[in-house]
Structure formats: C-alpha cells, structure tokens
Amino acid sequence: MTLERFHKCFPVFLTVIIIAIYAQSLGYGLIHYWDNQGYSYIEGNELIKEMSSENLKRIFTESFDNHYHPFTLLSMGFDYMIGGESLIMFRITNLLLYILIALSIYVFVRKLTGSYYAALFVSLFYSVHPFNVESVLWLSERKNLLFVFFLIPALIFYIRYIDTGKKNNIYISAFLFLFSLLSKSQGLPFVGLVFLIDYYRGRKLTVNLITEKLSIILSGLVFLYLMYHFHQPGNFVRTHPDTPMDYFFTGFRNVVFYIVHTIVPLGLSAYYTYPDFGSLVISFWYYPLIVIALVYILYRFQRHNKIFVTGILFFIISLLPLLKFVSIPYGNYIAADRYMILPLIGIGLALWGLIYSFIENHIKIVLGTAAVVFTIYAVLSFSLARQWKDDISFYSGLIDKNPELRSALGNRGRVYMSKGDYEKAVEDFTQLIHIEPEYPNAYLNRGLAYIRSGKPAKAFNDFSSAIELDPANYKAYNNRALLLMSLKQFPNALSDINTAIKINPGFSEAWINKALIEINSGQKDSAISSIEMAVKNGFGNEEIILQLRKQATE
Predict the structure, then answer these.
(1) Most buried among 132, 203, 285, 530, by the most CB within 10 A?
(2) Which of 114, 65, 87 is nearest to 390 (CA)?
(3) pLDDT at position 4
(4) What is the C-alpha separation between 54 and 96, in angstroms, rounded?
(5) pTM for the whole thing?
(6) Which structural domain, as residue segments, surrounds residue 518?
(7) Phi, psi of 328 (to 5 degrees)
C-alpha cells in the first residue's frame, strides 16, 4: 500500500480502533451517586426533556452544576429527543464526538506541521490513550468532549487564515471558539494557543498580530460576561488544605503527575485524593526541583526542536488553569484524567518532536516501538473502560486504587443496599466507619442496612450514634422514629419524628411518617393535619397520600 493510499484509509482505520475500544460502552448505564450527585444531567433533568421556549431560556440564562455551558445541555436535549430516557443515544453521541475529535486532530496536526507522519502519530496516540476514557464514558462529562469538538476546528480555521489571509477564516475560528466556551469554559486557553501557532509558523509578535485576533478576543469576552452574569455559585466546601503555598507546590506536583502518567498510564482513576498527611508543602517539596531539572535538560538539548517546544507549550497553556497553582472553586480532587483531553495533543506533538530526528535512519525501530506502545495503550483503555460498565465495577475500581476513599465506599454500600445485598452494604459502611469513625452518614446508612436485614437493635444503635455525632441530622431522627414505631414504642417514635420536623420543617417525608405513627397510635385527627402538611411541603406520591387519608378517616 502506498503512503498516499494509506493516509486516505487512515480515518477509517482510526475510527475502527476507537470503536473497538469503546463499543462495549454502548450498553452501559449511569453510575449512580456519581452521575447524579448534586445535579443530574440526565435522570430527572427537566431541562433536556423538552426543548420548549421556557427551557431554552433557562438553559441560556442559568448555570447548571455550577457551570455555564448551554451547548452541553442542548446536546443532551437532542439526545433525549431522539432516544428518550434510553441511554443508548447519549452513548452513541459521545462515541461519535470522540471519533470526530480524533479525526479533527489528524487534520489539525497535518495543517500545522505539513507532515502526514506527525498527523498519524499524534492522532493515533490521542485516540488510544487511557486518559480519555473518563471523558468518553462519563455521560455527565459531555461538556469535556463538546468543548474540544468545537475547539480543534477553531484551531484549523485559524491555520487556514494564516495560510490564505482570508478574514472569513478567522471569523469562523472566533465563532467556533465561542461555541467551545458555551460547552465548557476549559476552552479559554484557545487565546494562548493561537499565539503559539504564530510562534510555530514563525510569525513575529507585532501590534497587527494582536489586532487581527480581536474577533477571537471578543468571543472570549462575550463568554466571560455571560458566564459571570448568569453564574449561580454552588455550595462548595473545600476539604483539603487551602493555603497559597500548598497550591503552589501542588501545581508542580501535577505537572510531573500528568507527564509521567501520559507516558506510563498505569493506575489511572476517576478520582485522585489529596494526601491526608501534613502540609502539602512538606509532601510535595521536591516537585519544583524535578520540574526545574526537566526544564533545564529539555532547554539544553531540545531548544532548537521547534515542534517539541510547541508541544510542551501547548500542554502547559491548555492545562495551566487546571494545574491548581492557585485555588479554583471546583472539586476536592488533586487531579483528574479528563483535564488531559486537550493537553494530551501537546504531549503527542512533543513526543513526535523527540522521535522525528530518528525516523530517517531508524524508521523500522521507531514504527515498531510506536505500534507496540499504542497497542498497550489501547489494551489499557479497553480494560479501563470495563470499569465503567456498572456501579459496582466502577466503585470497586476506585476502592482498589484507593482503599480509603470515603465517597467510593459509601456509594458502593448504597448501591449494594439498593440491590438488596445488605451484608455487603454493611461491610462497606463498617469499613467507612473504621476509616472515619466520626462520619454520621456512615452510621445512618449502616442503620438502614441493618433494618432491611432484620437487625433492629443494631440499627437503633447506629441511628443513635449518628444523632450523637450530628444532633441536627433530621434523617437519623426520622429513621429512628420509624424503627421505634415498628417496635410499637409510639411515644418515643413521636418524640423523634417531632425533632426531625423541628430541625427541618420542610422535610415532607417526616410529615408523612408522623401521620403514619399517629395513625398506628390511634391519633387519627392529628394524622389528618400531618398529611396536609406533607402535601403543603411538596410530598408528591399521591397513592400514599390517598392511602393514609383513607386510614385516618376510617
């Protein structure tokens, strides 16, 4: 096969590889308590169920999940229009977006460098890399795929502008940049990337070079205005050290982390915790030294390798806001695989820059090594994708990598409980209590598992422990009240349910449970009043309401 013919076939080859890795995901479901924690992008999201004028207005004038990303919600709305509540359309769209991103990277690198080999290498490296598994398979992270889907064509049109001088190309680039931002704000480094392309193409920095980008800058400013105007801050509670020096050293740690795990993508996870011990300055003191040493070595030996320098700068520019050199109000995790969806292109370019000089005399060795490495990456991606097939696989994968990850243990316990496997649920909640003995919700959930497995005495002790640790835990009072009712201890049950209501008067479930206790204890007149309070506070199960009203009036 000739080189020209191979490159014509390469898009098909690349598509087949991506499908081979990710087709398994088409039947996957949501990850409960991960896909719908706080905000649910799919389940129960009324904004995507109907593209009405009211919903469209809310999509473009309100933030969602502490983000302003209307295009992301629109894309999910179109999926819902086609496939309804079935997840297959959401999965297909994610897979198609990833294929199109990989193909656009092929075009981008070819136009940037003029090299088919470079385009082949970088796009294949990107397509099979395990760092991208999270972005493809986590449905709630659609925004990650969508912003890159618009951003890479924006870069391509900017290069076309440089090559042709036609202004319409830079205007198209500016619009695509705005579309990227309306998908996720992580597209903002695009402004720096177009200047980086100028550097690679040998364009000198002048006033005209800046003024020609006014449309791009304007797109960024329009988005920033919209984001801050419509942004609604979420309740974000930081759970890790939060001092400027801690963040400074964390940033250097993350530079090393992302580079090392790009080359050797082992131990990747959907969640990376901050260390639990001491100061981050003490924990990460040596990382600035590693980065300084790397910079010196690379500058000493590679400063004239323009494609390598461009790749490294692409990596730094696109990742800089997420390295956590400074505090950002998102996430109590130290790093995230999904953050590499754009910077990975830069690493691919840098690697190509390193091996390019060896190709002419060692082409068989280079191609053979690349084939082996990319095959390993593809196998790792396929294996990592399998961890997303269901709740248990996902949380078990997290726990295997971090046995003391509190959220994973708690969520897996809740999943086991929903499946009726109360013994395993108790095991997870017990392990969570061992790790965090003063965590009230662990006792609360274990108490529920004990109730459902027929162990009321242990359940009572756990609900009482939750209350002792958190006297304002109205759910613990509510659950203990129901337990006491089942033991026919009605005065104590009423005392607990009244305390739950006093703590949270708007908790409609407590009003329903109070009515149930009153009915069982012969206080039917009071039960009628409690039922009305439940309705007033939004209790929506009409069947239960009708049943209790009937019992209260018999």
Answers:
(1) 132
(2) 87
(3) 64
(4) 29
(5) 0.90
(6) 488-554
(7) -125, 145
Specify the number of domains making up the chain.
Answer: 3
The radius of gyration computed from the CA coordinates of the chain, to the nearest angstrom, equals: 28
Who contacts 96 (Cβ-Cβ below 8 Å, separation ≥6)? none
Do 407 and 381 share a domain, yes or no? no
Position 338 pLDDT exceeds 80:
yes
For the cut 70, the answer to whether the pLDDT of residue 237 exceeds it is no
Average the pLDDT over 86-104 and give the result: 95
Which among 507, 508, 483, 503 has a CA at the least distance from the CA of 493?
483
Which pair of tokens denotes residue 16?
């087949």
pLDDT one-digit tens code per residue, 135-159: 999 998 999 999 999 999 999 999 9
Q: Cα separation of 25 and 48, whole Å?
A: 22
Position 398: which residue type? L
Three-state secondary structure string covering 62-108: CCECCECCHHHHHHHHHHHHHHCCCCHHHHHHHHHHHHHHHHHHHHH
Compute the average pLDDT of residues 320-325.
84
The stretch 175-194 carries a mean pLDDT of: 95
Residues 217 and 321 occupy one common structural domain: yes
Q: Are 42 and 139 in contact (CB under 8 A)?
A: yes
pLDDT tens digits for 391-423?
999 999 999 988 888 889 999 999 999 999 999
Residue 392 lies in a domain: no
The three-state DSSP-derived secondary structure of 244-276 is: HHHHHHHHHHHHHHHHHHHHCCCCCCCCECCCC
Is the domain of 503 the same as that of 455?
no
Q: Does position 461 have pLDDT exceeding 60, yes or no?
A: yes
The neighbour count for residue 425, using CB atoms within 10 Å, is 25
Both tokens assigned to 166: 């036609």
Contacts of residue 493, defined as CB under 8 A and 6 or more positions apart, other chains included, come to 481, 482, 484, 485, 517, 521
Domain-located, residue 100: yes
